[in-house]
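INFO batch 0412 | record 1 of 1 | parsing
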Amino acid sequence: MVAHLLRLKVALLRNSMKRTPWQLVGLIIGALYGLGILVMVLVGLAVLGATDSALVGTVLVLAGAALFLGWLIVPVVAAGLDMTLDPARFTTYAIPMKSMLTGLALSGFIGIPGAITLLAAVGTAAAWWRHPVAAVAALICGALAALTCIVASRAITAASTSLASSRRFKDVSGIVVLVPLMLMGPIIAGISSGITDFADFLPQLANTVSWTPLGAIWAVPAAIASGAYGAAAVKFLIALATIAALTWVWKVCLVRALVTPAFSGTARRNPGKLGFFAMFAQTPTGAIAARCLTYWFRDPRYSAGLLISPLIPVVLVFGGSQTGGMDAVGPILSYSGAIAAFMIAWSISSDISYDSTAFALHLASGVCGKADRTGRVLAAAVLALPLGLLFAIAGSVVSGTWAQFPPAVGLIMGATGAGLGLASVLSSRFTMMAPLPGESPMKSKPGNSFATVLVQLGGFVGAGVLAAPVAVLVIIGAVTGQPLFGWLALLVGLLLGALYVVLGIRIGGAQYERRGPELLQSVSVDR
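INFO prediction complete | emitting tokens
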């Protein structure tokens, strides 16, 4: 049965590459990228082996603990990221639990992340080439460490199944974790500034982590190399106890998930309020705008972007304050509002892909292209423009002068208009295999990223070119100090932004009406 599950995983992976050529191209690029990282890691480990064994142990323990944490965090950030062999699909089959656990655990190595993790973990033996006994131990410990990562990932996924069945939990957990990820640079810099001597701190940290489930298995070869065989045995026992406990948790949660339905059909709901639908005119355009706004606040695929966009200026402000001092905070805050507004505006480039098969309602109801494009633009503009203006006002307040407010607003209008107009055209021409409704916003499909990156990169470059006239006026005004150029930037930004939106709606609407059936077929492929 274990071999059958592994063959099934290979067959599913092979069939997924046959859907479109882009999936095969993306998988090849991902494999080459992973192999490149693996080669660099192995070379680095071999070079590291020439240094002191204590340094080798410190690096491996901390890096291994970080890898283990990564496998724990990823299922929370991207629930269902690799659920090709979803246990829920085997509910009606009498598969022994032992065989299912073994098959699912080993199937985790069939894929780029699992395979690279296994090879890198076993490859840590290269760092102990001066200590043959420790190198042999590193081979065994590396395989066990990789298996522990897979089991830990499966265990936390199964443990969160009951919570993940709640839509509110999905909305909150997957998005909230993005906040520290976005602010990782400032967080690391803040911690670094508070630690005066890394040379003393890191070995102490590694020694502490080596006695925990996070780093015990990685510390066994280091203990053997230093002759501390008793400590090595104890740490190996900690590692065995860790994987045993994780396996038990996984088994208990998996048994419960297979016999307990995640949803119940007996719940009753009272009629809800109209929400945004009561705020817009009862027209096709108004209905589409209200629906899109509802998704922005109720669908985690949208709300994740709504949370990330305001964080981008925060990161830019932090970087600017480190190089230009506090005097640079105000201008950066003002002009970075254009980036935040553009990111929200550009999100509608994925609107039809996010609609999935529900896009059929637009075609069946006979919504014209102009109404479809205008409704989506209105929903994004209602969120993007106030956010950009908020940063422009905050930057002027921090700077203590309103001289930069007009050019900042002009840049916001130009960038937002370019994003809305260009996205309206591209979204009616290209689709991507986006996460399905109800899935994690971080989930990606094999082979999809390459084509998506090309379209997104082209869109960013195109929007930059469209907003360049406003940016040039802003730069000239900042260099010469003449307020006239700031007001010209405001005027040009307003005119160009409006022009881009009108042209985008007209061109995108006409393209939408010509390619409606093709768009529906494209978004219906991945179900």
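INFO post-check: The chain has 23 helices and no strands.
INFO record closed
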